[in-house]
Structures are given as structure tokens and as C-alpha cells.
Amino acid sequence: MSSGFRSMHPVVALLYYAGLLLFTLLVFHPLFLATEIAGLLALLLLQGQGRQLLRSLPFMLLMAASVALLNPLFSHRGAHILFYWLDQPITLEAVLYGLMMMTMLLTIFIWFISYNYTVTTDKFMYLFAAAAPRTALLTLMAIRFVPLFQRRLRQITLIQRLRGIDAGTGSLKKRMTDGMTLLKVLLTWSLEEALQTGDSMTARGYGSTKRSTYTIYKADLQDKLVMLLLTVSGVVTLLFWVQGYGKLEIYPRMRPADFGWQEAVMYGSFCLFVLIPAGLEGKEKWLWRSSKHSNYPSDTLKKTGTRSMSYRSS
Amino acid sequence: MARFRIPLLIALGLFIAGLALTAAFTDRHYVLLSVVLLLAALLPLFIRLERRPLQSRELVLLAVLSAIAAVSRIPFAALPGVKPVSAVVILSAYVFGAEAGFVIGAVAALVSNIYFGQGPWTPWQMFAWGMTGLTAGWLRRSWLLRRRAGLLVFGFIWGFLFGWIMNIWVLLSLPDALSWRLVAVTFAASFYFDLAHALSNVFFLAVLAGGWTKVLQRFRKKYGLLQQ
Predict the structure, then answer these.
(1) Domain segments of chain B: what residues?
(2) A283 FRET partner, CA 20 to 30 A, in A225, A236, B18, B181?
(3) pTM for the full model?
(4) How far apart are the CA of B144 and the nearest CA of chain A, in angstroms?
(5) Between chains, do A150 and B66 touch, taking CB under 8 Å as contact?
(6) How far is A166 from chain B (nearest CA, A)?
(7) What tens digit of pLDDT does each residue of A197-255 get?
(8) A81 forms bridges with which residues in the sheet?
């Protein structure tokens, strides 16, 4: 069951992730990136996704660390030379720039883990089905076919084994041709059956008029409130960025970052933007915990304020 | 609200493109710009898919071929570089044409990454496999793809091209260090994976070509699919 930030309206989630990705790619400042990572990590941990995060950690670190290493080795711009390596100057600026890029890549990787967990494919398709109905239908059908075809392939393998056609035994040549046969059976079976599906779609009038979309999600007051908050804080941050704040200048020479009131306001609204989902998730957790500790005199549960997915039909 | 959806989307796209250009020119920060350009490259072909006359049979056919391409990637997950998707996309484009090839390649990348993990590489893979299908469809009547050996060479070339396209996003995250030496190092690092991809393409095309094109061509003729 989904609760907390996952149960928000898909538009809210998409707005949050789109804004976050935009800020990752635009705002080149270690403090902002670190805040973003902290916000995403808090959200993921509160959602109980720590294990998933841990599993992809080695790959993420490997990719990011290689970027951090490659930059100083190939870029020699900057005024502060740290040392020489193979007659090439290694500059402080290049090292810092590499570290910044590493942080950015890490943020993007963590962003994707969180995005995949919250904005599932059906939500994404729900949002874009109206703009691109054919592409959405095509993609959804393909997604649905993948597990079906895997099941079918298993069935085909079992049945063809009785005829002695088995991709697991025999010489390499036999195994190859047998594997071919299995795949060809899958192809013909699936195509034949899918074309019948297509015919039945035509018979039911697919494509005869403009396609209508079924709206399953309903935006409630909290959705609208959070959407407003996200928009305002995001726009404020973006306005300051356009003015030129929140940029760390590394090249051509490292300049100490000054942190004036403009940066403070920008950072404040950025923090608000980043931490809203984690806050919602935390609130949910806290309400759940405290509701368990209070004892109910009757069997009827009091309304605690935790929320779950709101459907129009229910 | 529905009436304003398209203008709203266009305005949003232009806004992000503007931000990307600003970031690229003032800060030499190219990642966002690359993503915008990539989406701009994918967009016309998807708009074409939305607009062209298409029977529901043909739509389902495209979905089946994309799904088969995506499924074919799963048994080989343990071997990096071995991706039968390319071979399936090339053969489908060979029979059904360039546009179908593009759609099958792009959707197969998107769908298979639901199982393999979405990441910053997803749009690049969509682009790379989409282009594989597009070029195979364009060249299907040419002397190269007419004969079996030419088809295998085509698959071999795309094995490397795919890897080189995927290298671009690694290079883009290092805008300042970009030099021929960095390019050489990146391409040398990916050489074995690209070679594995190219050789596996040749292998899968050699094994699949005869049977699959025959099956697909029969279906095309029998149901009158994507005749254009």
C-alpha cells in the first residue's frame, strides 16, 4: 500500500522530481547539491528503501569516482598547482571541479532511484496519456507483454522439450538451432495472438474518435497546497539563479564563495522545495507511531490524519 | 485546461531549452543542453507516430516487437555488452521500415530499462537503438543490407556506434577536461564492451536473420501491415 509522498497526486510528484532534476543540472554549488542529496536520502530512508540504495551504491560510487579522477588528469586549467604528475600539473581547481561533477552524478543516480520508486510507470503514463495517447498505449502494452512473454517462453520450453528440442542440452550447434526454434515459436504465437487483439480493438472502436482518458487520481486539498508551495519555492530559487546567485566559480580561478542575504533567501526557498516530501513522509511516520501508542477505548479507530491514495471511485 | 495542454507543454519545453542554453553559454555546463537536444531529436519521430494513420493491428505489432526485443535482453543480463536488442531491432526495421524500426528501438530501450534500472543513460539508449532501427530501415533496399554478409557488417558497425553514442554522456560530464586524450581513454575503456556488443550482434543476426525475416514478412503480407 502506498502512503505518504507516494500517495500524492502524480502531478505533485512529477513537479517535484522535474524541479529537482532541473536544479541539479543548473545550480552548480556544493551546498545546494549536498542539501539535495540529504533530502532525497531522507525521503528514501523514510520510505524504507535503504536496501535498494545500498545495492546500487557500488556502481554509483564507481561511476562517480571515475569522473572525479579523470577531470584533474585531463584538465589543467586553474591557478593553484598542487603537484606535478607525469609532467602534467594537477591543479586545485580541476580537483574541485571533478569533485563537484562527482557530487552531481551521485545526485542524479539517487534522484533516479527515488523517482523510480515514487513515480511508477503507470503514473507517468497517466500524466502523458492525454498528450501522446498512441505512444502511451504502445509503451504500456509493451510493458505488459514482457512478463507475459517470459511466461510463454517457459511454457514453450517445457512443451518442446518433449519433442527433444531443448536449448539446454546437446552440442553447441544443436543448442543454437533449438534456441532459435523456441524464439520463433514465441514470435509467431505472440504475433498471431496480438493481431487478434488488434482486430478486437478495432471492432470495439479504437481510433474511431479522439481517445478519452480515464482519470483515476483526484487532487485533494493537501495536493493543491503542496503543489503551490513547490511552485512558489521553486520559482523563487530559479529567479535568484537567473540573477546569477548560487554559482560557485571554480574556473578560471577558485574564488571564495560569498554568502550574502540573496544566497540565504535562495538557499532557504531551495531547502523548502527539497525537504517538503521528506517532511510529509516524516509526518506520516510520526502520526502512525503516535497512533499506535495511544490506546483506543472502542474498536473504532480515531481519525489520525494519515493519508492513503485517494481514488475517485472509492 | 485540456485546450491549453499543447501550448503549455511547448512553452515549458522552450523555457527549459532557454535555461539549458544559458547554462551552456554562461557556465559551460552542458548536461542539461545535451538532454534537451536529445529529446528534441526524439520528438519529431514520436510526433510522427502520433499523427500518421495507423491501424490498431499495426500498433499492437509494434508493441509485440518492442516487448520481444526487451525480453531478449533479460537472459543475457549477466554478460555486459551482449544485447540481442540490436539484432531484433535491425531485423524488424529491415522488414517494417525506418519509422517502425525507430519506435521499436526506442520503446524497447525504455521498457527493458524498467527491469534493468532507469538512469541518465535511458534517453541515450532510446536514441541509440532508435537510430539503429531508423538507419536499418533506410538502408533496407540498399546493396549493403540486401545480402546476408552486408547485414552482418551493418550489425557489427552498430555495435560500435551504440557504444560510442553511450560514451558521449560520460564525456559530457567532464566539459572542461574534454580533449582528444580523454576521448581516446574513454573509447579505449569501452572498447571491449563495444566489441562484445558488435560480435554478439553478428552472432544473433546470423542465427536469427533467415527465420525471423521470413516469419515477419509472412505476417506483413498476410495482414497487410505497415505497407506504406
Answers:
(1) 1-51, 56-223
(2) A236
(3) 0.81
(4) 25
(5) no
(6) 16
(7) 889 988 988 877 777 766 678 888 888 888 898 888 888 888 888 777 767 666 666 66
(8) A91
